[in-house]
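In keeping with the milestone schedule agreed at the kick-off meeting, the structural modelling team has produced records for the first pair of proteins. Each record is given below as a sequence line and a structure-token line. The laboratory manager (R.T.) confirmed that both were archived under the project's standard naming scheme.
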Amino acid sequence: MPILAAALIMMAVVIGIIVVIVIVAGPSKGLASKTPKDQDTMLRLVNKRLSQNPRDPEALSHLADIYFKQESWEKAFKTYEILEELAETNQKLDPFEIHLRCGLCALEVHAFEPAYKSFSAAWNIKQDNFEVNYNMGYLEFQLKNYEKSVQYLSLARKQDGEHMPTMRCLGHAFFKLLKYKESMAFIRKAIELAPDDKESLYILGECYAEVGHTDQALRIFTHLRSDPVRGPNASLYAGNINLAQHKLEQAIEDFEFGLKHQNIEPAVLLELRYQFAIACLKQNEIGKAILLLQAVQEDNPYYKDVSGLIDRYEELNTNKNLQIFMLAPSVDFVALCRKIVLSYFNKSKTKISNIIVNRNEWVDIIADVETIKWTDMVVFRFIRNQGSIGELVVRDFHSRLKETKAGKGICISVGTFSDEARRFTEARLIDLLEKEQLLPILITVDAKLGSMPEAAQEQAHEVLDSDLVNEELYESDQSAAEDSGGIGGKAEKPEQEPSPA
């Protein structure tokens, strides 16, 4: 009896060992059907085996498989890392499966460098696996290796042409490579599969803008203006498109929309304010523009040409006539120039005989002037260019004097004259007035007209109210000047219009 009992005990132990071995070494497919209670039992058995041998390949494989299916990514990642080392020498382990799963777990815990290493090892074993190609493409994109990213993702697309993340990443990679047409094809497909992907929609708008389809781009950016993430950038892009198309009111609306957002990136905030200010300047809303420019300067004193714009337009903001001279439409500019001509010579009779406008760049006013000491024809040229005026412009003005047989020329600019221009006028009856001399004239011109004798005032108002204010009467281009006797010739006036003299 004792022998029989011992035999029975020994048999029970052997059966138990066999059951454990079958459970531990059994196929992984069987594990999928285990209940949580069964998995807990398995974990206890596996951990017991690992307590005896921490690098037991079979036990580690089953442990990693359990963690992977439970989505315990951190634990699974650490376990697969050990298995990657063991797979180098243990032929019973599947190295491809281990590298693939290690890479997937590493991505889940944002360990991108180990993930790249694992997927690279898996790709070296098998190049036609979709998961490996997609994830290698994704990681190369994160590393800004866009050419390599496209290569891997193209392989993945051949294996699954409807995988939205592949289409999306391909489109973004082509965009980074400045291949906008290729990018558009994939991003459009990605948006079809995931219509709520605002980032891809924004990039599609940029692609449209880059290939010249500004209407489609504008529709996308206008749609995205209210998006809390992409809204500020979309508003900036939409505003810049409208600004380039001279749609100033729409551009201002876009910039205002963008500035209403919260938590705007500092760089985007600066550019929104700057472009908003530029749009306001084009609308002659100088006070509003200065406030925006000052806000930009407060955040970044060296941003673009902000300091120069503030210096220039603060002066304009306090000098209405300077605003007109530099920024107003041609009709208002010419009207101001006529005021200056009529009040330029003290105690004189000035009669304007002709006005010639060269687009919106400069205007020539020919006047007969009679003073106590002399009487002569004087030609005034008013130049709106704020930069340096060279010798060629002054030579052209001198030609105008010779053609009109004028006795004197006065060239006035809001900019400066070059040394060559000044040397050219040294022996000629031409006066050059720069901004420094122009400013006092602009400040006092209205007061001078008001202090004229009554008869002179009436004559001045007759001239100012005459039909010469109609810009179409004296607008001239190159061909018109040649038809009237060469560059600088007098523009002919329609027969139905009365002579300004």
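The second protein of the pair:
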Amino acid sequence: MESIKPVVDTAFQAVKTGVEVVRKVWSLMEAAAEKKPPSELLSQSAVRRIQGEDG
């Protein structure tokens, strides 16, 4: 049984790391989905100025 413990520990750590990665990715995706587009926060002329289209 002692020879299996390192394998189980490694598998457990891999799953734990995978769960953490999925949580971080999910959080980033959720934040991006909730972010308002610039057109809701800025006027059209401000958006054009930022894009360099309006002097």
